[in-house]
TrEMBL record:
<feature type="domain" description="MTTase N-terminal">
    <location>
        <begin position="2"/>
        <end position="117"/>
    </location>
</feature>
<dbReference type="GO" id="GO:0035597">
    <property type="term" value="F:tRNA-2-methylthio-N(6)-dimethylallyladenosine(37) synthase activity"/>
</dbReference>
<keyword id="KW-0411">Iron-sulfur</keyword>
<dbReference type="InterPro" id="IPR038135">
    <property type="entry name" value="Methylthiotransferase_N_sf"/>
</dbReference>
<keyword id="KW-0808">Transferase</keyword>
<keyword id="KW-0408">Iron</keyword>
<comment type="function">
    <text>Catalyzes the methylthiolation of N6-(dimethylallyl)adenosine (i(6)A), leading to the formation of 2-methylthio-N6-(dimethylallyl)adenosine (ms(2)i(6)A) at position 37 in tRNAs that read codons beginning with uridine.</text>
</comment>
<dbReference type="GO" id="GO:0005829">
    <property type="term" value="C:cytosol"/>
</dbReference>
<dbReference type="Pfam" id="PF01938">
    <property type="entry name" value="TRAM"/>
</dbReference>
<dbReference type="InterPro" id="IPR005839">
    <property type="entry name" value="Methylthiotransferase"/>
</dbReference>
<dbReference type="InterPro" id="IPR006638">
    <property type="entry name" value="Elp3/MiaA/NifB-like_rSAM"/>
</dbReference>
<feature type="domain" description="Radical SAM core">
    <location>
        <begin position="142"/>
        <end position="373"/>
    </location>
</feature>
<dbReference type="GO" id="GO:0051539">
    <property type="term" value="F:4 iron, 4 sulfur cluster binding"/>
</dbReference>
<dbReference type="InterPro" id="IPR007197">
    <property type="entry name" value="rSAM"/>
</dbReference>
<dbReference type="InterPro" id="IPR058240">
    <property type="entry name" value="rSAM_sf"/>
</dbReference>
<keyword id="KW-0004">4Fe-4S</keyword>
<keyword id="KW-0949">S-adenosyl-L-methionine</keyword>
Length: 437
């Protein structure tokens, strides 16, 4: 077998894992092809909400129908969903020949060469949430040549009551700073302009190593590498975010002025039930502190509606918090019960229609906030890193500002990877249009 296809679902960590798997397979002289021509389709999967899993399950069903007739393509199911329900999937679908949890990726490139229809499917499960057999390869074969992700911590120990991540990604483990910096060096030497350091809670970086070297130190060392144009990070946790990070950001203008600080709810009662470890008052005080230190910062957040027991009043508190903070972007989601988490067993599960109505209401508010904020940018000047064609419109490209806003300008592929000064000419609720200065 020599032909593979790779499909990534879920978060940025999965993009990183997918890019590393691609790189490893290309090193093995495998050829990447569209999935219709592949011998092996690798699915890098997510379990965060039920819908994320249903989508992949129906894709596997589609591959299975073909596999039954042609004994191809074999499916390698990796990532969070593989860890959660990979065994079930392999029982149900004969095309699933390999299942690997996110902490066993290191075994996948060799194992896919051994997939054959005669043998039993192979399983590399993260049954021990501390075991780790990672893929020691920098993601040099990426979908985006100018931007790369680098994971700095595996797993998560916070156990928010709604969240499946600690169960599928295992315990917190920080990567050695030397390994991270070696990897970022390789990427920069290969032409990468922008690196995003990834962790479920980047502020937890180093807390398991206890050597005094935490996220702020890593951020400073990563930013100091010559040749790097932009450095980003995600995700920050309101409980663990500390002032040292703001200090490093103020020192280094090449660290992007964009912080994703998930609030999840504006109600103190719900925040307590979620086990988030802060109140809305503490969250708002942190927002003030961040905006005080970095006046041009862009703040984004994640918010869940319809958590068990959420009353109209609790929901109103989330609504009001959004109105007060005026985030640049809010990633909203209707609560989805995840088997085995504490919230899934709570009383007061909310009706789907109520969740949908709350989601609509909050999304309508946020698009209004975003539109008003974006309109204020008309006439402003930014530098964007151009990195792709605009989704619509001939002869247009897109890039992002330091604050992670998308700006669309006239241009062509030759502009990709360049920093371009622009002036904003038009705004909508999700993007800005501009002209070159
Ligand atoms: N580590 C990050 C988020 C990881 S999951 C943090 O601490 O915020 C990404 C987002 O998915 C979360 O911020 C949350 O808003 C959403 N999410 C997680 N579990 C969910 C669930 N069971 N139902 C709905 N949304 C969920
Ligand atoms: Fe999930 Fe909470 Fe960990 Fe984020 S911090 S990954 S929401 S358990
Ligand atoms: Fe999904 Fe796993 Fe990321 S559950 S959001 S792919 S950590």
């Amino acid at each position: 077998m020599h032909k593979f296809s790779i499909r990534v679902f879920g978060c940025q960590m999965n993009s990183y894992d997918g890019d590393r798997l691609r790189t490893a397979l290309l090193h093995q002289k495998w050829e990447e092809v569209p999935d219709g021509e592949a011998d092996v389709v690798i699915l890098v999967t997510c379990s965060i909400r039920e819908k994320a899993e249903q989508k992949v399950a129906s894709e596997i069903g589609r591959y299975d129908a073909v596999y039954k007739r042609k004994k191809s393509p074999a499916v390698a199911l990796v990532g969070c969903m593989a860890q959660r329900i990979g065994r079930e999937m392999a029982k149900k679908f004969s095309c699933v020949r390999l299942v690997s949890g996110p902490r066993h990726l290191g075994l996948v490139p060799q194992a896919v060469t051994e997939i054959s229809s005669g043998t039993q499917p192979r399983f590399f499960m993260d049954d021990d949430p501390r075991a780790l057999l990672d893929l020691e390869v920098a993601p040099t074969a990426r979908t985006n040549p100018f931007k790369a992700y680098v994971t700095i911590t595996y797993g998560c120990d916070r156990f928010c009551s709604y969240c499946i991540v600690p169960y599928v990604r295992g315990r917190l483990q920080s990567r050695a700073a030397d390994d991270i910096l070696k990897e970022t060096r390789t990427l920069i030497d290969g032409g990468v302009k922008e690196i995003t350091l990834l962790g479920q809670n980047v502020d937890a970086y180093g807390k398991d190593l206890n050597d005094g070297y935490g996220f702020a130190s890593l951020l400073r060392d990563a930013a100091n590498q010559p040749g790097l144009t932009r450095l980003r990070f995600a995700t920050s946790h309101p409980k663990d975010f500390d002032g040292d990070i703001l200090e490093v950001m103020r020192e280094r203008p090449d660290i992007c002025r964009a912080i994703n600080l998930p609030v999840q709810s504006g109600s103190d009662r719900i925040l307590r039930e979620m086990n988030r470890g802060y109140t809305s008052g503490q969250y708002l005080a942190l927002v003030d502190k961040i905006r005080g230190a970095l006046p041009d910062v862009s703040l984004t957040t994640d918010l869940i509606v319809g958590f068990p027991g959420e009353t109209d009043e609790d929901f109103r508190a989330s609504y009001d918090l959004l109105r007060e903070v005026k985030f640049d972007i809010v990633h909203t989601a209707a609560y989805s019960p995840r088997e085995g988490t504490r919230a899934a067993m709570m009383d007061g599960q909310i009706d789907n229609r109520v969740k949908a109505a709350r989601l609509n209401e909050i999304n309508a508010l946020q698009s209004q906030i975003a539109r008003t904020a974006n309109e204020e940018y008309v006439g402003a000047e930014f530098e964007i890193l151009a990195d792709g064609l605009a989704p619509r419109g001939e002869g247009k490209i897109q890039g992002r500002t330091m604050t992670d806003k998308v700006v669309i300008i006239p241009g062509c592929e030759e502009d990709f990877g360049k920093i371009i000064p622009v002036r904003i000419t038009r705004a909508s609720h999700w993007s800005l249009e501009g002209e070159r200065i």
